[in-house]
Amino acid sequence: MTTYLSVNHVSKKINGYTVLDDITFSLDAGKIYGFNGINGSGKTMLLRAILALIKTTGSITLKQQPVTLNQPFPVKVGALLEHPSVISEFSAVKNLQLIAHLQTNTTQKDIEDALLLVGLDPSDRRKVKKILARNETKTRTRPSLFR
């Protein structure tokens, strides 16, 4: 079987506290995996590392391509970790444009389609804080639609 994801000696410290300690494993393509552990065991932090959302030591490869901070991600992925944030002073469109900027192939039409999919108007330029009360779940789950 082909290795799809390889995590080698990945560690992360925050304020002197080790949150990931020399994690090493590989996952094969075409299989489904899950992470199991108690609260605070590092599951979300590990997923953040795999998604190149945080800086770590060690190395991560996906489809034999390095996964590194501030570089285009090697595959299309949609992820919703814990409580995703939006910038309440920006419109829903502007929030998605910021997220889409991380993807090399997300277009303005993709953003508009994602908003329409959940019943938000792409031409609505109100700040997110004005529409959150009524549409909080819709607005916060949009980033996971870019896969």
UniProtKB/TrEMBL annotation:
Q: Which family does it belong to?
A: Belongs to the ABC transporter superfamily.
Name the InterPro entries for this protein: ABC_transporter-like_ATP-bd, P-loop_NTPase
Keyword tags: Transport
Q: What is this protein called?
A: ABC transporter
The protein's GO terms of the molecular function aspect are: ATP binding; ATP hydrolysis activity
Q: Which domain of life is it from?
A: Bacteria
Q: Where is the ABC transporter domain?
A: 20-129
> Is Plastid tagged as a keyword?
no
Q: Does the keyword Transferase apply?
A: no
